[in-house]
């Protein structure tokens, strides 16, 4: 598998690339892509880093697993490719943005424009076998993405981390709370949202208030 990852990340993660677990992970992923249909497309696995350089990171959103149906995953958590039906979690994200900051519900579910403004859209697991949710979990991706969270926490300051749901909240222990901002809420999935744990969290306006306070350009959600 070709390790096409932006140079600003590559040299900071070289220690991870050299570790045995990562070499085993690449071997596993390469075999999976050769033997099965997997997502996202191989050239989009590292999109989260290629659209958002290390230097540009202002906000981090943590997801769990890529979408596993055809044409959905594009390497950015919660995002789908152009002209793809919006999954339920993404619908609820857009609904919250509508009520929180008044942006109209968008046609496209592609969140690349968030990435290019400094939002790192990081899934804990970066690949998945078609129609088999969680099929690439516990193969090494989580160790790698935990290392990314730690690098951002250690090497940067005043980053806004958005931790949605129980899985993402477990990553809080990797973040230096004295240097960064952490906003938590329920997950945007229908199960959580319908129980009242998502809607009204105002994380998008709160993020921009923090960015304004620290003189950083606001995110156009």
From TrEMBL:
GO MF, one annotated term: uracil DNA N-glycosylase activity
Keyword Ligase in annotation: no
Record's keyword terms, sorted: Cytoplasm, DNA damage, DNA repair, Glycosidase, Hydrolase
Enzyme's top EC category: hydrolase
Compartment(s): Cytoplasm
Keyword DNA damage belongs to the record: yes
Enzyme Commission numbers on file: 3.2.2.27
Domain Uracil-DNA glycosylase-like per the UniProt entry, residue ranges: 50-211
Active site: 65 (proton acceptor)
SMART domains recorded: UDG (SM00986), UreE_C (SM00987)
Catalytic activity: Hydrolyzes single-stranded DNA or mismatched double-stranded DNA and polynucleotides, releasing free uracil
NCBIfam families hit by this protein: PRK05254.1-1, PRK05254.1-2, PRK05254.1-4, PRK05254.1-5, ung
Family of the protein in this entry: Belongs to the uracil-DNA glycosylase (UDG) superfamily. UNG family.
Summary of the function given for this chain in its UniProt record: Excises uracil residues from the DNA which can arise as a result of misincorporation of dUMP residues by DNA polymerase or due to deamination of cytosine.
UniProt-recorded name of the protein: Uracil-DNA glycosylase
